[in-house]
From TrEMBL:
Domain HTH LytTR-type: 194-300
One MF annotation (Gene Ontology) recorded for this entry: phosphorelay response regulator activity
Pfam families: LytTR
Protein name (database record): HTH LytTR-type domain-containing protein
Gene3D superfamilies: LytTr DNA-binding domain, P-loop containing nucleotide triphosphate hydrolases
Superkingdom, taxonomy of origin: Bacteria
InterPro entries: LytR-like (IPR046947), LytTR_ABC (IPR012046), LytTR_DNA-bd_dom (IPR007492), P-loop_NTPase (IPR027417)
PROSITE patterns named among the record's database cross-references: HTH_LYTTR
Signal peptide bounds: none
Amino acid sequence: MESSAALPHAARELLLKGGGCAVNFECAPELCAPLRAELARSGRSVGFVRADEGFYDRMDTAAYLRLFERMAGTRGMADAALAAMGLEDARRTPLRRLTPAQRRRLSIAREIVRAPEVFYIEEPLAGQDAEGCRRILEWMDGVPSTGRCCIAATASTRTVYLLPGERYHLDGNGLERLEAAEESAAQGTAVEKIPAKAGETLLLFNPSDIDFAESASGRTALSVRGEEYACALTLEELSVRLERYGFFRCHRSYLVNMQKVQEVVRWTRNSYALRLENGPESGVPLSKGRIDAMRRQYRF
């Protein structure tokens, strides 16, 4: 059995929460095994969706789900799971021909069919396009209302802020809650060049080159045309220097170039994102508490 020795007591308590709940961990992949082990010994029925899933590749999508429907004795759940994950058009597709994104949604659909007390999902948005993200986030948002728990683990800071529910950073030093409250951007003097590093090479970016900046685990990264570059400045310092160039503090951990924003996406009633020209399909998180400030500032 996988070990849970690496988990702090506070994390174990979160895994044992009863009733309808949604808990999300930002953590390194090696901490997923202890999370799974703790849930496995909890005494509750748990549906596991791992980052490394195996399939019966000769079966088609519908037959695969109906196999688990028969095993679980949950009549009528296969069709509902297909619809929830947007897989109706792939119901007769052999599993070996599904895309990685479809396989991820199929894994979730399999656990929907089994109807466990707790859903545990690793990297829920991995490889998803906008429609896939919407399907998964809407389903996750609705899980607590059924009296079940949804627990997710991801190595992506961006992803954890899009997921509905409580958010925590988990590492070898313990557990830290990620607050949703926003820090106000300070006023200051802007500059024309922003320093960043690619390996040992120092780069100087024009503000217009930067799509967004994010802060995770005490480190700041700039996203430029889909590539990430380490930046020694804090997000607060960047906010001060970039505000006059049209950057907006959309989230505690994100600063976005509003010139690059194409769409405001509402994934669920409490999960919003800004979709950028060169940004990730899931978008950059937009805190609910920052929406009114953005409307006032940009007059829409």
